Each structure stands twice: as C-alpha cells, then as structure tokens.
Amino acid sequence: MAHIREYLDALASVLNTYAGRDKALRSVSFMLALKAQSSTRKEVVLALAKQCSSARLVLRQFNHPSMIKSCWDLLTTQPTDYFEYFCTTAGTSAYTIYGVVELLAWLSDAHILALDSTQFWRWCLYLWIAALTSGIIRQMRLISKKGLKVDKDLLTLIGLVSDFIVAIHSLPCRVLWSCKLSARHSAAFSLVASLIGFYKAL
Questions:
Q1: Which end of the chain is more exposed for a tag (fewer CB within 10 A), N or C?
Q2: H-type helices in the chain, by residue range?
Q3: What is the C-alpha to C-alpha distance for residues 112 and 29, in angstroms, rounded to an integer?
Q4: Arithmetic mean of pLDDT over the chain
C-alpha cells in the first residue's frame, strides 16, 4: 500500500505541473494515433486522439508568460559557456515565437482572425525544426563531454531526434525523408518522444 501511495503522490505531483499535463496528453494522443492504425474503429480512435491534441493546444496558450520570462532571463544572463548559451537561447526563442505564431494560426482556424492559417502552421513547423536542431546540437555536445551513458541527456537526445524525424517528414515532399513515413511510423516516433518527455517530468 505504501508503494501505491508513493506512486499516486508522484503522479499527482507531475500532473499538477504544466509540463506533466502536456506530456501526459501528448503521450495519450499518440498512443491513440498508433492504436488507430490497427483498430476496426479507426476514425473514432483518431477523433479522440485529435481531441487530446486540441486540449494541448489550448493549454499551451497559458504557457506564453513562462516562455517570455525564460527568454528574458536568458537575455539578462551573463554566459560562461557561449556555445551552450547560444543553443539554449536559440531553442527557447524559437519555441517562444512558435507559441505566438501558433496562437495566430489557432485564432485564424477559429475564424476569430480573417487570416490564412496555412502559412502560420507552416512557420510553426519551421520554428519547431529550428528549436529541435538547436536542442540536438546542444545534447550531442553535452554527451560528447560527459561520455555516452544511459542517462537523461541520452534520453533527451533520443526524444529530440524522434521528434526531428517526424518534423522533417511533415515538410513538403522531396525534402530529405519528407512524406516517406507511414502513419504508424510517424505515431511511433512521436510516442517515443512523448513518453521520454513524460518520464523526464516525473
């Protein structure tokens, strides 16, 4: 019983955070997307996965102040490692701008703004790739300095690479491996990244 209580305490603690809820919803969404590929009720399961994804989008709109604060803190920090500082600042800035562009895309889809959402979603993808690239470079440098060990740095790299594979797949066809993954493979890579993110939030 004590172990169950500890597990519930840990789960409640992580789900009380933005990162915990976001990664939990993302994991559930891609679990459903993967399950849908072999389900006889594919459309129903995919619709539920889409609802989870939509819930994440709404929750992300409350994360703007936190992202802006992170950018502010970075810009007012005196770096000791300029390479680390550049990668961290580039990634955080890309994600912060991504949030604003995504908000415009969402409001355009909802017909609140009379704008074409397609171009905003396209820029969201480019910003995501930029953020992932800076994150991958940063993690590879950290691992090269520490040595290859199965720890959170390596798991973070695996998660970033998994997302990067899916992000490139989402680009217009004929760009690297874009349009080459099946729906099952895309969901599987995204699920790996999601589960790693949830594990790190614990």
A1: N
A2: 2-15, 18-36, 42-60, 64-75, 82-109, 117-146, 152-169, 183-201
A3: 26
A4: 95
Range of the domain at 33: 2-201
What gap in Å lies between CA 37 and CA 181, rounded to an integer? 13
> What letter does residue 81 receive in the DSSP assignment?
S
Displacement of CA 115 from its chain's centroid (Å): 25
Asked if pLDDT for residue 2 goes beyond 90, the answer is no
Number of domains observed in the structure of the chain: 1
Q: What is the largest CA-CA distance in the chain?
A: 57
- So what's the pLDDT on residue 163? 99
pLDDT in tens, 63-72: 999 999 999 9
| Chain position carrying tokens 């017909």 | 111
Q: What is the CA radius of gyration of the chain?
A: 18
For residue 26, the one-letter residue type is R
Query: Residue 55 corresponds to which amino acid?
Result: A
Tokens standing for residue 95: 């994600």
- pLDDT tens column, 105-134: 999 999 999 999 999 999 999 999 999 999
Q: Return the amino acid letter for 32.
A: L
The whole-model pTM stands at 0.93
194: which residues sit within 8 A by CB, 6+ positions away? 23, 26, 27, 29, 30
Amino acid at 172: P
Phi, psi dihedral angles at 110 (to 5 degrees)? -85, 0
Share of the chain above pLDDT 90, in %: 88
